[in-house]
Design a protein that fits this description.
204 residues, single chain, globular, disordered C terminus, 6 helices, mainly alpha
Length: 204
């Protein structure tokens, strides 16, 4: 007995089945990416009060400073965007990063760099297919060449940034800086916590 509707091998999976269409996926990834970078902007605007706080070394995470984590996480977004703006085949390497840049030691330089990255995301993501192929060159520490896509790497850049924000939270705590409760938590964690809070609310 056959179903009244069927999908051919090339038919898109309907969003009702739990898989969003290309445009929706792209818009959601852009929204999350921008929100993550804006957390760092908020830290610089409302949390830190001196440039010295950008370069204070953590007692718990050797070699770590807030400035280094902000620069490192932002670099992943920018390197990805630069890769897809080059002619095909797109080649991406997260190991080609400039260190000791002004954004590691200056709040204003960091603000400018993060806001520039947000503008780049808003310009590039809406016109770049999620399945745009990219060749990733990585060192693990052995050289690796992997095939990936723009959508996958954009998702990774956001997750990677959240990982570094969690370490920024530790350093901020050492400096006595109070951050927003959501800073350094993955979007999925925030959704989970919100659902638990909703379930725990007393019914009127």
């Amino acid at each position: 007995m056959s179903s009244s509707t069927s999908l051919s091998p090339t038919s898109p999976v309907p969003e009702q089945a739990g898989v969003p269409d290309e445009g929706t996926s792209r818009a959601r990834l852009l929204e999350v990416s921008v929100a993550i970078l804006r957390q760092a902007v908020g830290l610089l605007e409302n949390g830190l009060t001196t440039d010295e706080q950008m370069t204070t070394h953590s007692n718990y995470i050797p070699g770590s400073t807030i400035g280094k984590h902000l620069r490192h996480a932002r670099d992943h977004f920018v390197l990805l965007l630069e890769a897809v703006l080059t002619p095909t085949p797109h080649v991406l390497s997260y190991d080609k990063r400039a260190r000791n840049t002004p954004m590691e030691s200056s709040r204003q330089a960091a603000l400018d760099a993060l806001n520039d990255a947000i503008v780049q995301l808003q310009e590039v993501v809406p016109t770049t297919p999620m399945k745009e192929p990219i060749t990733l060159h990585a060192v693990t520490p052995y050289p690796q060449i992997l095939e990936t896509t723009f959508g996958r790497e954009l998702w990774f850049a956001g997750l990677h940034a959240i990982h570094h924000w969690s370490m920024v939270r530790v350093i901020a705590g050492e400096l006595g800086i109070k951050l927003e409760e959501s800073f350094g938590f993955a979007p999925s964690t925030l959704v989970h916590l919100e659902s638990k809070t909703s379930l725990g609310k007393p019914k009127m």
